[in-house]
Design goal:
about 325 residues, disordered C terminus, 8 helices, 6-stranded mixed beta sheet, about 25% strand, single chain, 16 strands, globular
């Protein structure tokens, strides 16, 4: 039986920094426009809600954090969202209203730790799960925690198996292999990398995994970010005007055979769409199935610890050692 064709859109747009309600308003307008053009799946960039803190170091140096940096973190924390929470409720309502699968990059707060996460929401307005970035890159580690193996979902849907891997964790071959083993077909790669080399990464993943890759990035100008000294993008800020581009996008959609279906776009904020012929997955894997006939599992294998990594476990809630467990 022929597999369906899926209309997918990636959003290339900037956060309204430190203003989560305004960012949600912007997201809904973009989602409505994508849905009006027939999209069934809409993918937003990394950290779209909460903001990607490009150009900031939060006052942190080895063995020293400034008081101003601590205050900046508190502002950033305030713009993040809880899961569940009212912002997730609104995202669910958006997806339901516009009848689309929504893949949204957010900054998630869990207590006082922040995570760079991706949420999955169904056209029925149902929260389907999340992925937390396993390894923040470089100075991102100052403000973001590390995900664990419990948030590596591949969601089975009527339009295909959907998963997400964020920015440079896409360079982790074992993580990619875990996603392939879960059968990912529509591989979402929200990012903050607008360099030309990123295009080589996403095309390789499409060919390696025999899957569609949807990479969404923000397009940002200097005026989209708070002014210095909090956020600095050049050795001297005088080199920049409010309209200077500080993240050029490069969002793109790639087929399982490595064909560029849409993008990369470096021109400005945009909705970038393509029709995904899911039959192409089988045609690609006829030649190369990385976790199937090409895997050589008797030589090479991978173990994934897909359980939560908890700092503290209480026996009264886990059942271990509780009076009930001893009866």
């Amino acid at each position: 039986m022929a597999r369906p064709t899926v209309r997918a859109t990636i959003v290339q747009a900037s956060t309204v920094f430190y203003d989560t309600p305004a960012t949600l308003d912007k997201a809904e307008k973009l989602l409505a426009e994508a849905a009006a053009n027939g999209s069934q799946l809409v993918v937003f960039p990394e950290a779209f809600i909460g903001g990607y803190p490009r150009g900031s170091y939060f006052g942190a140096a080895i063995a020293n954090v400034t008081e101003k940096g601590r205050e900046e973190f508190c502002k950033y924390h305030a713009a993040a969202i809880s899961i569940p929470g009212p912002e997730v409720d609104r995202l669910e309502a958006m997806a339901k209203k516009h009848k689309v699968y929504l893949v949204m990059g957010v900054i998630e707060k869990d207590g006082y730790t922040l995570y760079c996460s991706v949420l999955f929401i169904s056209p029925e307005g149902q929260y389907l799960g999340k992925h937390r970035k396993l390894t923040p890159t470089g100075a991102e580690r100052i403000v973001w925690g590390f995900g664990d193996g419990s948030t590596l979902p591949v969601i089975q849907t009527p339009i295909g198996k959907i998963g997400a891997v964020i920015c440079w964790e896409n360079r982790m071959p074992l993580l990619r292999t875990a996603m392939y083993a879960k059968g990912v077909e529509i591989y979402c790669a929200p990012t903050a990398d607008s360099k030309e080399t990123w295009q080589a990464t996403i095309r390789h993943i499409a060919l390696e995994g025999g899957c569609f890759v949807l990479s969404a990035n923000q397009f940002c100008k200097r005026k989209d970010y708070p002014p210095p000294p909090e956020y600095v993008f050049a050795s001297t800020e005088e080199d920049l005007t409010p309209d200077s581009v500080v993240c050029a996008g490069g969002s793109a959609i790639i087929s399982p055979l490595g064909t560029i279906l849409a993008g990369p776009n470096y021109e400005g904020e945009a909705l970038i769409s393509a029709d995904l012929d899911l039959g192409e997955i089988g045609r690609a894997k006829f030649s190369f199935d990385v976790v199937g006939h090409y895997s050589r599992s008797e030589v090479l294998s991978l173990t994934v610890r897909d359980y939560p990594a908890k700092a503290v476990t209480f026996t009264s809630t886990s059942g271990e050692g509780s009076p009930q467990s001893q009866i």
